[in-house]
Design brief:
The chain has 138 residues and is mostly beta strands. The protein has a domain at 32-122: Sandwich (Jelly Rolls), CATH 2.60.120. Strands 1-2-8-3-6 form a five-stranded antiparallel sheet. Strands 5-4-7 form a three-stranded antiparallel sheet, with no helix packed on it. The chain is built from two helices and eight strands. It has helices at residues 32-35, 125-128; strands at 28-30, 41-47, 62-70, 72-77, 80-85, 89-92, 98-102, 109-117. Helices cover 6% and strands 36% of the residues. The protein is globular. Keywords: Metal-binding. Residues 46-114 form the Cupin type-2 domain. It comes from Paenibacillus radicis.
């Protein structure tokens, strides 16, 4: 059978992520294994109202990008506290000491975290993309 140029999975709704995994990653679904990712780690995350990550962490080599898609909360990086809402994005260098919490009393904080080795991006959409000269067919 021919290998395909993609992998796909269907995750649960963000509000159901709490039931997907057990502690200490409750509310987090890592996509590396199911999708066979080779250059990044991606996770889908949900914190219930008033929830928080109960520890600080940093990384050896990977920067993280937090993309908030619902709710409101705070991200703490070193001694700075950043207010985040739907549409906020925060990039954190590997050495940044971080944690976060949901500051809402009624709504989940839902976000995506993308993790990749700092300074490893050598090409991006404008330098890596190739537009093909064939018509689109559905």
């Amino acid at each position: 059978m021919q290998d395909r140029n993609y992998t796909m999975m269907q995750a649960s709704l963000f509000e159901k992520l709490v039931s997907v995994t057990e502690a200490p990653s409750k509310g987090k679904l890592f996509l590396k294994e199911p999708l066979g990712l080779t250059s990044m780690e991606v996770s889908l995350n949900q914190l219930p109202p008033g929830g928080e990550v109960p520890f600080y962490h940093k990384h050896k080599e990977n920067e993280e990008l937090y993309v908030f898609i619902r709710g409101q909360g705070q991200v703490q990086v070193d001694s700075d506290i950043l207010e985040v809402t739907e549409g906020s994005s925060v990039r954190i260098a590997p050495q940044g000491v971080r944690t976060l919490r949901n500051t809402s009393e009624t709504e989940d904080l839902c976000f995506i975290v993308i993790q990749a080795k700092e300074h490893s991006l050598t090409q991006w959409v404008m330098t890596d993309g190739i537009i093909l000269e064939e018509p689109v067919k559905w």
